[in-house]
Amino acid sequence: MSRSAYFINSSNTIVDDNLEGTVLYCDGAYLDKKHRIVLRKDLETLKATGKVILICGGGSGHEPSHAGFVGKGMLSAAVCGDIFASPPVNNILTALHATYSPAGTVVIVKNYTGDRLNFGLAIEQFKIHNVDAKIDMILVEDDVATRNSPVGARGICGTVFLYKILGALAENGNSFGEIVEYGHHLQKKILTLGVSLAHCCIPGQKVRRADVKKSDGKASTETYEIGLGIHNEEGVEKRPLETVTAVVNSLLQTLLDNLRQADHDRFVLIFNNLGGLSQIEVNIVVKEVISGAQGKGLSIPSIFVGSFMTSLAMPGFSVTLIPLDDHTERCLTSTTDCPFWPRMLPVNREPFCTLPEITAHTPEIKSMEKDSSHTFSDDNSTKFRLALNNACDIVIQEADRLNDIDAAAGDGDCGTTLKQLGEETKVMIADETTNFNNPTEVFWKLSVIAGNTGGTSGALYGILFGAFASKLKNVNDRANWSYALEGALDIFMRYSRATPGQKSMLDALVALEQSMRPLREASVSMQNVLLQCVKDVEMAAENTKNLSAAVGRESYSGKSATGIPDAGAYCVALWVKAAGESLLQT
Description:
Layout: H1 14-24, E1 29-32, E2 37-40, H2 43-48, E3 53-60, E4 77-83, H3 89-99, E5 105-110, H4 113-129, E6 135-140, H5 158-172, H6 176-187, E7 191-196, E8 212-213, E9 219-220, E10 223-226, E11 237-240, H7 244-257, E12 267-273, H8 279-295, E13 302-306, E14 316-323, H9 326-333, E15 345-346, H10 364-368, H11 378-397, H12 399-407, H13 414-430, H14 439-453, H15 455-471, H16 478-496, H17 505-516, H18 526-543, H19 553-557, H20 567-585
Parallel strand pairs: 3-4, 3-5, 5-6, 12-13
Antiparallel strand pairs: 1-2, 2-4, 7-10, 7-14, 8-9, 10-11, 12-14, 13-15
Helix pairs in contact: 3-4, 5-6, 5-9, 7-8, 11-13, 11-20, 12-13, 12-20, 13-14, 14-15, 15-16, 16-17, 17-18, 17-20, 18-20
């Protein structure tokens, strides 16, 4: 679950490379490479104008914290250590001396033993040389999972929002005493809790994995951990993986159990990606967090979404609640030039709308209803229905096999998409209003169903069926079925840009079209044509094993599937055989 490899030069240079990269697009910051200190370029202006200095720091691996939040309206400087390791006292002391201002220095520190001790020692040593200096440390203790620890709760994502709120006060010119007082007051009210699917992997170390027991006593391979730390500390509990709704509900309930809600009317909610969630996961979790918080009676007018305090590429997230009043809101929305600070977003109160349904455009159907050239006999309509149903059955049955074939060179979803098409087609077949006496109408409906299935396969079949319906002029003239498929394939190739021999479903379709050409001769037996169609299409699909893909995902994915047939062609062979055998038996 966790990543064991990273795009880095070396585990020995990861921190320095990271800091150098960070300041390259933080125009308002300098980097002192020797001491790993990132500081504002306008530091002397801050001192000259009597602004309070804000310093933070800690181990690396939490990016964009801490260096990414150095800038106007936030931090004056950040001191960075090795991965998950507090910076040494001398580096912190260097930062304190370099940024010293008579207006005072506020040091914001996550409550971890290493940070607390190293920053505390540096402050005490600084005071020896600057007896009259105004300096104080604010320990952030927002992790509700460790509220009962004898050394206090850990400091996690809430720390970043103290940077912003106190940074806004400092930028506004508030005094040292005002900032310190408000900082100590506010940090007690910030609540955070995190969950993750696994621990992160530190470059150069082995992957760690949570393990729990299922209710049947067997080991679970899909788990999550609640209340874990940002340095790979064990959480308070490991659980079998649940739906995200259940995970979020549990997390929110724990936050609520620690919340003195009666003291506050509104809260700002922070979703923090711990580093390893995809955007699709972020969106799903955020949906559940907002709806879950509102469902529990919390007033959440605003939300922050992003990565603020990460744990390398940990596949998890944390949620933070901060009481929101007008003063705090002004601080959170005040100007900053830190590129990593996002906009506070209002929660959308009207997120959904309903557009009018659009009926599929099938203009020729009504004009065909009384046209004998478009009407099958009852006997033929029964055969047509049964053949189509059997074709759907085999595609549904072989979905996993199709996915396996597709996975060799594609994304492995061909069978899933075509199974959906087969299932929805069977719904149409079972619908008593479907007029199988009118094959053209049926193919139009198949085109609409396929187009709404989604994916490349759905679109291709939608084009094929629609083009075939438009070309089928006389359903009782077997030669016209051959001409209709020939014309449909011309349209198919125009949109797909495929040509025969490029390893695609077209290779099987072309074989079908060529095998149907004898239908244009009145003397040829229908049975012989059907037998030949099945044989030739199966052979064409099998022969795609020996072709190199020039279209489709295999052509540009770099994955070679030599010796494996094309999934699309294989599927065509399946339904041609099923439909052909059905027609031969009736």
